[in-house]
Amino acid sequence: EIEGLTRAGRWALALGDTREAVRCFRKALLLSGGATSPWLRRVCAFNLGAAYVETGKPKKGLEFLLQSQPSEGESGEHSGDLYFNIGAAHEGLRDFPKALEHFGKAAGHDRAAQAGSRAGTRVQMGCCYLGMREPARAARCFLDAARTYAAAASPEAAAVALSRASGSMLQSRRFRAAEITGVLAQCRSLCESIPDPALRGKLYNDIGLGYSQLHIFSLAAESFEQALALCGGEPDRRREAALLQNLGAAHNALRSFGTALGWHRRAAALHSALGNRRAQGQCFSNLAYACSRLGSHEAAAENYLHALQAFRDSGDMQGQWQAREGLGAACFHLGDPQKAVGHYKEAL
């Protein structure tokens, strides 16, 4: 019966039904109390502990995982899995140094294990370093994981690890722009072989944001357009609105203001439909700036007014003074210096 419950629990975990998995593993552990084999009880305790960690209950998980440790002199053939799960429990409890200690032990046991397991451990270590606000160390863990995943022919996992590495590299400010663009380019080339459109779209968006931070706006715009083409239906509406907004901003930065207008208008309309007034205000502000650079100062003033109202509705003070400044500049261009001065005073 214990074997049947264990199989059922693993199947439930594979299907993402963590509550059912916990139920099966808990019952198996209770039954194992009457068994003569301490090894069987430890296996059951491990399964239950790992399932609790998976369900977001690391404290409870850790309690059972510690019960599953082999006693001295016993074989620790599955020690890598045990250390990994204890590390994951400590990570869930935000005790990052202890988590790293156990992930390090798991990595030592993982040398003979599959590449995916080794790389997974490095990813978790990277997450711990991010939790400890050490993005440079996190970046190195993610890069190491990406290399291992690539060698094991897992392009999806390699691309995700590279994406996380580039974000950490940008955050740390310890890497040269050329190193970061190299990682972004690798990630982009791997995207082409990823069959899942949702994952591919998310990665292209992250790549675009990375290029934007490096001020490489032509590649940013290209990546955002690739991500936009992969947005599918209702669940992606918020991402679609953000992508349209990012595309508009990228084209403003490229000084291709005529092209930017269409993206700003689409983004503002979609943010309006989604009820996101603050983001809509940002789009109106970006649209007004593009209009002013094209010499359409009346349209600029109108859009700065729309932006001002949206920022008032969402309580964004910084947005309000920026819109006021824009209105001041537009009024000067329209030959109304008195009104312009009034807007500048309001901005102050």
From TrEMBL:
SMART domains: TPR. It holds the Pfam family TPR_8. PANTHER family: TETRATRICOPEPTIDE REPEAT PROTEIN 24. This is TTC24 protein.
